[in-house]
């Protein structure tokens, strides 16, 4: 049961946008709950359906300070389209703006660089696909060479070329990852899968002995079956809602 008082919806915000804002704020809080934050840095963005605008966190706030009301609304170039006392983090606009502007199948983008993920991004081989979670990422991962902090619009076409038309995980070499999906629950489930794959790969790499390799056909079947589940109407929604309940049950209201 959700025991938290519902935040007040501003009069100028539609019901659909307010629902998206609430869900995006929950996503920020989940990333904080699981310890995947990087202080005030990194970003989670959600596109407003039917527009070229997306919602993103106000720069300077911790993830647990993000609320539905203080999320800022920007265009694909990072310009605010509504008044707000907050600004965004310019380092996120090139990455998020590029993906939102080019991929109609991606409405939520999450960028993190946890220790495990950043360790995999540093390794030339990148993500393996021999463990249960890594197998689910077969055929879904792209790689982009590090060019420094993603501040500049000139990098956008190169990031998009690296991501391609069908990948949903972009490993930013020497840096971190960005995952993108059709909506917030699907993006969070993908982030969780990527994080688990990274943690297991790092742990296995620290152990003596050879890994048991999976045939490509097996790992690809695992990825395909996962996508069939995700394509359903409520698989990711159930997962996301369960994580929100878990979070709210373990922190003060």
From TrEMBL:
<dbReference type="InterPro" id="IPR001303">
    <property type="entry name" value="Aldolase_II/adducin_N"/>
</dbReference>
<comment type="similarity">
    <text>Belongs to the aldolase class II family.</text>
</comment>
<feature type="domain" description="Class II aldolase/adducin N-terminal">
    <location>
        <begin position="22"/>
        <end position="202"/>
    </location>
</feature>
<dbReference type="InterPro" id="IPR051017">
    <property type="entry name" value="Aldolase-II_Adducin_sf"/>
</dbReference>
<dbReference type="InterPro" id="IPR036409">
    <property type="entry name" value="Aldolase_II/adducin_N_sf"/>
</dbReference>
<protein>
    <submittedName>
        <fullName>Class II aldolase/adducin family protein</fullName>
    </submittedName>
</protein>
<dbReference type="GO" id="GO:0051015">
    <property type="term" value="F:actin filament binding"/>
</dbReference>
<dbReference type="GO" id="GO:0005856">
    <property type="term" value="C:cytoskeleton"/>
</dbReference>
<dbReference type="Pfam" id="PF00596">
    <property type="entry name" value="Aldolase_II"/>
</dbReference>
